[in-house]
Amino acid sequence: MTAKEKTEVVDDGNMLIVCIIFEGDHSNHYYGFVLKMKVVPKGEGSLVKYTIQYEEGNEHGPDPQQFMNMITMCFDKLDAHLVAEAAARPN
């Protein structure tokens, strides 16, 4: 699958990143996807809340699950990278 991504918001104060996914394989059936990643401090660490919004272009399009699986895979890789980075930092 191919797509273009544009980072719309990087808000360090609110620990929020918003990306727009446009063009590419999904554009025949969906107007687009908006990905939001917000970091929420919790105890000694943090949680990351991922939100995925999409708008169907027509009611006969395929189930968006295939796109959600791809996006989830990207988030899983990001999570693993951040955990590995945190573990490698000296205390």
From TrEMBL:
The family assignment reads: Belongs to the MLP family.
Q: Which InterPro entries match?
A: Bet_v_I/MLP, MLP-like, START-like_dom_sf
Q: Which residues does the UniProt record annotate as the domain Bet v I/Major latex protein?
A: 3-85
Q: Which GO terms describe its biological process?
A: defense response
Short name of one Pfam family for this protein? Bet_v_1
What organism, scientifically named, is this protein from?
A: Thalictrum thalictroides
According to UniProt, the name of this protein is Bet v I/Major latex protein domain-containing protein
Annotated SUPFAM superfamilies: Bet v1-like
Superkingdom of origin organism: Eukaryota
